[in-house]
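Table S2 (continued). Query chain:
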Amino acid sequence: MISQAEVVRLVRERSPLPAEETDTIVRRRFSSMASTLEVPLKRFRLDLKRTLDVGCGFGQCLVHFGPGSLGLDIVEHKVAFARSLGLDALRCDLDRDLEEIGRRRFDAIWCSDVFEHLHAPFALLCRLADHLEDDGILVSYVTVRPGNPLVRLAWKRFLGTEPYRATTHHYQFTLPTIQYLLDRAGFRVIGRIVPGIRNDGANRVASATMSFVFPSVVLVARRDSDLLRSRGEGIRKNREDYVRRV
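Corresponding output:
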């Protein structure tokens, strides 16, 4: 497993950007992501898994994943930066198809702050299921809106903002709605992780008792063949009903 110090050294050595810009990327992307990724990385050994990093950005998470991993992002200069680090990354519009990756399948899929920004997150999840091995896992970091208004007010005062109201978000999820979306797309949620709590034991306790009060969550889900079959049957039936009506 590559250490954070090694990551920072790699970025500074290989970055094609001036030192000041590179330091900004290190601080805002690579350093800030460390606390979010640490627990799922260690718990599920993503450093050994062939992982598809959806919305890979500058490669801040991709750099930690196992051999054969691939990053996807729509922003060309971010993809170029990830490639400069020696990472495998492709430009891809996640709201369209995933033709760029062909029939490749992965042991794990990592999505960080992706679904809120898309026009069609359900469609993407359905496509991702086809690129995951039968025993693979989907690990997704999602900004969520706590249900209790007092909790939302407390987070607004603590953070100085409401992350789930970001102007670039097309969707505002709650914990139940994002879990429902994953279920409908053929993924069975098997665990929750609270971002920022780096001790695994403390994180397990917090995720089991307090995950509904945090403004973000990491959800872990498995590809569920039964759900995928029922999803296909449901989509086919809806199409047949539509044809009959018109």
